[in-house]
Design brief:
Shape: globular
Helix content: 25-40%
Order of helices and strands: EEEHEHEHEHEHEHEHHEHH
Number of domains: 1
CATH superfamily: NADP-dependent oxidoreductase domain
Number of strands: 10
CATH architecture: Alpha-Beta Barrel
Distance between the termini: 54 Å
Number of helices: 10
Strand content: 5-15%
Largest sheet: 8 strands, parallel
Strand order of the largest sheet: 3-4-5-6-7-8-9-10
Radius of gyration: 19 Å
Length: 337
C-alpha cells in the first residue's frame, strides 16, 4: 500500500464564494512523453495517496482512460466525488458556436462525470496544431486574438455554468491586456486563471493582476517542466532546479530542488499542478507542501532570482504575418495584431 497523505493536512486556497480547494494538484499533460495508460495509472495512484485536485484537458488525449480510473478509485472508496476537484479545458479548435458545449459534453463522457468542478478556455484564440507537431508547424487559419471572438466562446462557457455542468469557469494562457479586454464583458467571471509559473518565470505583473481581481492563479510547469515538448526547448532556457537560490534552499532542507520549487509555489499563493508517472515523485510533491516550509529569507531570494524565462512559448499558434512567439504575449502592454 502506497503512503497515504491526509488531504486535510494539505493547505487550501479559497475560491470566490468561499469554497476551499487544495493548494496543489496533479497535472495530466504527458502525451509527448508518456502513454495515456501511464498517465492514468499515475492519476489512480495519486487519488489513492491523497491528491484531490486534477488538471485535465481534452487535447491531452487521455481523458477516457483517466475517467476509468476516477470511476475505479471512487468505487474502491479511495475518495468521494465531492472530495475531488476536477478541471478540464476546451481546445482551440472547439471555440465556434455550439462547439464549446459539445466539447464539454465529450469531456464529461470521457471522464465519467456528471459535472466538472472547473472548465477552462485552454488558449485565448482558436489557433491550434496537430498533437506532437514540430516547433515550426503553423496553421494557415490561425489569427490574432479577438476579444469579440473570445467572448463568443466565453458565452458558451457561461451557458455550461447555467446548465449546472460546470461549477467554476477559468481562463488559461492569458495576458494582462487580454484580461483587461474581456473581464468587463464577462457575465460570469473566471474563478481561476492558469499560467506558466516557476522560479525562473514568475510573471509578477500577470500574477498580481489576477490576484488583485480576486481570481486564483494556477501554475503550470512549476518545476520548469524538464519533460516539456522538445519544440518548446531552446539553448537559452533556464533550468529551475539548477538555479543557485533553489539549490541552496534544497541543500538547507535536505530535499531535491524540485521540492523547493513546489514549496515556493504554494507559499507564493498559486496552485501548482506538477506531473509525474513515478509514485515516489508524486508522493514527494504532495507531502512537501505539508511540512518544513521555506523561510522568509529563502522566499525573498527566490523572488529576486526571477529570470523572465518563458518555457512554453506557443510558437505553433502564431498567425500569418506574426514575427515571433513574443507576439503571443503582448509584452509591450498592448494586444498584438
Amino acid at each position: 500500500m502506497a503512503e497515504f497523505i491526509d488531504p486535510q493536512k494539505v493547505p487550501k486556497r479559497t475560491l470566490p464564494g468561499g469554497e476551499k480547494i487544495p493548494c496543489i494538484g496533479m497535472g495530466t499533460f504527458g502525451s509527448d512523453r508518456y502513454t495515456a495508460k501511464e498517465v492514468s495509472d499515475a492519476v489512480y495512484g495519486a487519488v489513492k495517496c491523497g491528491y484531490r485536485l486534477f488538471d485535465c484537458a481534452s487535447v491531452y488525449q487521455n481523458e477516457e482512460l483517466i475517467g476509468r480510473v476516477f470511476s475505479q478509485a471512487l468505487e474502491n472508496g479511495f475518495a468521494k466525488r465531492g472530495d475531488l476537484f476536477i478541471i478540464s479545458k476546451v481546445w482551440n479548435d472547439r471555440h465556434a458556436k455550439g462547439d464549446v458545449i459539445l466539447s464539454c459534453a465529450q469531456s464529461l463522457r470521457d471522464l465519467q462525470l456528471d459535472y466538472l468542478d472547473a472548465y477552462f478556455v485552454h488558449w485565448p484564440f482558436p489557433n491550434y496544431h496537430a498533437p506532437g507537431c514540430s516547433g515550426d508547424s503553423r496553421n494557415p487559419d490561425s489569427r490574432p486574438f479577438s476579444a469579440e471572438e473570445f467572448m463568443g466562446a466565453w458565452r458558451q462557457m457561461e451557458r455550461l455554468h447555467d446548465m449546472g455542468l460546470v461549477r467554476y469557469l477559468g481562463m488559461s494562457n492569458m495576458t494582462v491586456p487580454k484580461l483587461k479586454a474581456v473581464l468587463p464583458l464577462c457575465r460570469i467571471r473566471p474563478a481561476m486563471v492558469e499560467m506558466e509559473l516557476h522560479p525562473a518565470f514568475q510573471q509578477p505583473e500577470l500574477f498580481n493582476y489576477v490576484s488583485e481581481n480576486g481570481i486564483q492563479p494556477v501554475g503550470f510547469c512549476p518545476i520548469g517542466s524538464p519533460k516539456r515538448p522538445d519544440r518548446d526547448k531552446t539553448a537559452e532556457d533556464t533550468a529551475d532546479i539548477e538555479m543557485l537560490e533553489v539549490a541552496e534552499a534544497a541543500k538547507a532542507h535536505n530535499v531535491h530542488p524540485a521540492v523547493i520549487c513546489l514549496k515556493w509555489a504554494v507559499q507564493n499563493g498559486q496552485i501548482p499542478i506538477p506531473f509525474s508517472v513515478h509514485e515516489s515523485k508524486y508522493l514527494s510533491n504532495l507531502r512537501c507542501v505539508t511540512e518544513d516550509p521555506l523561510t522568509k529569507e529563502e522566499m525573498a531570494k527566490i523572488k529576486a532570482a526571477d529570470k523572465n524565462c518563458r518555457l512554453i512559448k506557443g510558437q505553433v499558434f502564431l498567425w500569418p504575418g506574426a514575427s515571433s512567439w513574443h507576439d503571443l504575449w503582448d509584452e509591450d502592454g498592448t494586444i498584438t495584431k
